[in-house]
Amino acid sequence: MHLSPRNGNRSGRSRAALLTIHILGGLLLAATLALAFGFVVLWLWNGLMPQLFGLPPVGYWQAVGLLLLGRILTGGFGHGHGKPTKGGPAWKEYDAWWREVGEASFARHRTREAGPADEK
Questions:
Q1: DSSP of 51-73, one letter per residue?
Q2: What is the DSSP string of the chain?
Q3: How many Cα neighbours within 13 Å face the side chain of 120?
Q4: Phi/psi at 90 (nearest 5 deg)?
């Protein structure tokens, strides 16, 4: 097989074709998962809520709406983008603060908490 220096793949497909295939595959996967999760919520709601709390059964689109509402209320649709990670600049600032102020403050706190009865 010949590696094309232009697109770097062996099958001869262009980058645009591969990107299109990945996008369509991702959309198909997302639609399948949405369908499956909608039916899971439908099944769980209709199996539990009417018997436990006397609530009416829901249809498929109501179940999908409940799924979306729950997602919005518990964290939105972000996937952690913008949140500081252990290696990010926010942690470097915190580590510097801990070395300068935090360790001494924690030691004073432990001394106060220990009290005279625990001193030896």
A1: HHH-PPP--HHHHHHHHHHHHHH
A2: -PPPTTT--SS---HHHHHHHHHHHHHHHHHHHHHHHHHHHHHHHHHHHHHHH-PPP--HHHHHHHHHHHHHHTTTT--STT---TTSHHHHHHHHHIIIIIHHHHHHHHHHHHHHHH--
A3: 1
A4: -65, -40
Q: In this predicted model, what pLDDT tens digit does every residue of 49-88 receive, in sequence order?
A: 999 999 999 999 999 999 999 989 988 766 655 555 566 7
**Contact (Cβ atoms closer than 8 angstroms) between residue 38 and residue 69:** no
Of how many residues is the chain composed? 120
Q: Supply the Cα-derived Rg of the chain in whole angstroms.
A: 27
User: Taking Cα atoms as reference points, which of 58, 30, 34, 31 lies closest to residue 44?
Assistant: 58
Other Cβ atoms closer than 10 A to 69: 10
Q: Are 28 and 20 in contact (CB under 8 A)?
A: no
At 46, list the tokens.
Answer: 């209709």
Judge if pTM exceeds 0.85: no
